[in-house]
Amino acid sequence: MKVSYYPGCSLESSARDYQESIEGVCNRLGIVLAELEDWNCCGATAGHSLNHRASIELPGRNLVLAEKAGMDLVAPCPLCFNRLKSAEKALLSQETGTYRYTLRGKTKIWDLADFMAQEGILERIGSKVSNPLAGIKPVCYYGCMSSRPPRITDAENCENPMSMDKILMRLGAEPIDWAHKTDCCGASHVVDRPDMVFKMVGKLYHRALEVEANCIVVSCQMCQANLDIYQDKIGEQMGKAVYLPIIYFTELVGLAMKERQVETWLSRHFVDPLKFLGDRGLLA
Amino acid sequence: MENPQQSPVKVDPGFSNLVQTSASLNVNACFQCRKCTNGCPVTFVMDIYPDQVIRLVLLGQKERVLECSTIWVCSACETCTTRCPNEVDIAGTMDALKAIAVQEGIKIPQPKTYAFHKAFLDDVRKRGRMFEGRLMQSYLVNSGELFRKLADGSIKEEISLGWNMLKRGRLPLFSKGIKAKKEIKKILE
Predict the structure, then answer these.
(1) Which CATH architecture fits A2-113?
(2) Residue partners of B181: CB distance under 8 A and separation at least 6
(3) Closest by CA position to A167, among listed A220, A110, A111, A116
(4) CB-based contacts of A43: which residues, under 8 Å, 6+ apart?
(5) Stated pTM of the model
(6) Residues of B in contact with A17 (CB under 8 A)
(7) Is A84 exposed, middle or buried (0-12, 13-18, 19+ CB in 10 A)?
(8) For the domain with range A131-279, which CATH number is right: 1.10.3300.10, 3.40.50.720, 3.40.50.11810, 3.90.1570.10?
(9) Do the Cβ atoms of A45 and B117 come closer than 8 Å?
C-alpha cells in the first residue's frame, strides 16, 4: 500500500518523535509513505488569521502536487489536515479564477489517525501485536482540527471521534471514555499568551485525572507540545503533582509491535514515558 | 464624567457586507441564540463575547469589533462554527476581522499575537516552510519580548527550553528551504 505523505513543518523539528514513530510503524505495516515532492508550509493559524487567499493557496499548491502523484494523501498534523481540507473545499467550489490553483478533486485527504483506523490496517496492526499494552489506561485526546468543522473535515462524528480509541483497543490498552476528546488546548497561543494555554491544559489534566487515566494519547504535535513541555509548571499552578505522559498513538503502536526504536522516540519527550511503561513491564 | 450611554456610536451600515464578502461567513443569518459563546473555550480572556462580535458587525459598529481583543485571543478551535444552528462561520469572521484590522492600521490590543502570526508568515515567505528555531528568534525580537525577558531575567526560561529541545534532538540548527520559493513568495505578496 502506497500513499502520498505531507509531514508538515513541525514534524521536521520539534515533532521529530512523531515523525520517527510514523516512519517506523508504517514501515512495519507495509505502508509506503511517498513524501510530496517539494511541499510547502500550509500557512497554519497565521495564514488563515491574516491572509485568506494565502490560507487557501498555500495548502492548495500541495494539493496540486498530490493530484499529480495520483494517490491518497495522508497528513499527520491535524492543522495541516484541516488547512488541506479547507483548500480542497474552496478550490473545488471557486468561481473560475478566484484562486491561482484548480483541482479536479481526485485526491482523498486523510488525517493520519483516521487512515490508520481503517479496518484493513487495524487488522494488520492487530496481527503484529506481540507486546499487548496491558495496564495502559489512557484518555485519547484528539484536539480540534481533525474534527472541526465537519463541513470541512468530513468527520463522521466530530464531537466523539473514535479512531485512536479503536487503534488502542487493538493494542490491548484500555482507553477510557471522556467528554473532552476535542476540547481546545490553546494551540499556538502558547507563544504569545501562555497564561491562556496553561489554564486550558490544566483543565484537561484535571479531567483526565478525574476519570483515572494514567496517560494521555494524542495525534497532534501541537497538543503534544502544550500538554508535555509545561506539565511541571502547570501542575504547580494547579497545586498538585501531575504525572501524565503525553504519548503519540503511533509510539504505542510501535511499542505493541516491539519496534526497536521505540525508546529513542519516547526519550525525546519532556514528561518521561519510559518510567511509566517500564513500571508496567512493557519495555524490553 | 462621560456617560457611555450618551457617547456617540459611529455606525457603518455597510460593514456587515464588507465582512461578508471576505469569505462565505453568513453573518446575516445570526439570530443571537448564543450557542457560540456558550461553547467557546476562551471566553475567559475575551473582552466581548463571540455572539456580541457578530451582533456588533450586523449593527455596523466597526470600531468596537476591530479594536477588541476577542478576535485575537480566539484560538480558532472552530467549536462555534461547528455548533451554530444557522451555519454562521463565527471563527472565520474572527479571521476576516483580524485581516481588516491590520489592513486599516488599527491599534491591535494583542500585539504579541499579531507579532507571532506576522513572524510566522515572514518565515514561510523566505523559505517556503516554517523553521521553528528561526521563527522563535524573530518573534522574540519583533514582539519586544526579547527586551522584556532580558530585563526581567525570564530569558532564562527561553534558553532552558531551547537547550532542552536541542538535547532531545528536536531543534535542528539548519532549515530545509524548498525549491519553489518564488511561487510561495507570490502567494504571500
Answers:
(1) 3-Layer(aba) Sandwich (3.40)
(2) B126, B127, B128
(3) A116
(4) A51, A54, A55, A58, A59, A83, B121, B124
(5) 0.96
(6) 170
(7) buried
(8) 3.40.50.11810
(9) yes
Q: Are A206 and A238 in contact (CB under 8 A)?
A: yes
Residue A160 phi, psi (nearest 5):
-145, 70
Nearest to A40 among B73, B113, B129 (CB): B129
Burial readout B95-131 (b: 16 or more C-beta within 10 A, e: otherwise)? bbbbbbbbeeebebbbebbbbbbbbbbbbbbbbbbbb
Q: What is the pLDDT of residues A37-84, one digit of tens each?
A: 999 999 999 999 999 999 999 999 999 999 999 999 999 999 999 999
Question: Could you report the average pLDDT of every consecutive run of 10 residues in chain A (284 residues)?
Answer: 97 96 98 98 97 97 98 98 97 93 96 98 98 98 97 96 98 98 98 97 98 98 98 96 97 97 97 97 92
For chain A, positions 188-217, list CB contacts with chain B under 8 A.
188-189, 191-193, 195-196, 199-200
| Cis omega (within 30 of 0) for bond into B109 | no
Angstroms from B146 CA to nearest CA on chain A: 12
* Best A20, A21, A41, A152 residue to mutate vs chain B (most B CBs within 10 Å): A41
Q: Domain-by-domain residue ranges, chain A?
A: 2-113, 131-279
Q: What is the pLDDT of residue B8?
A: 76
CA–CA separation, A26 vs A47, rounded Å? Answer: 30
Query: CB pairs below 8 Å between A and B: how many?
Result: 152
List of E strands, chain A: 2-5, 32-35, 73-75, 109-111, 138-141, 215-218, 246-248
CA distance B113 to A46: 9
Q: Is the reported ipTM for this assembly greater than 0.85?
A: yes
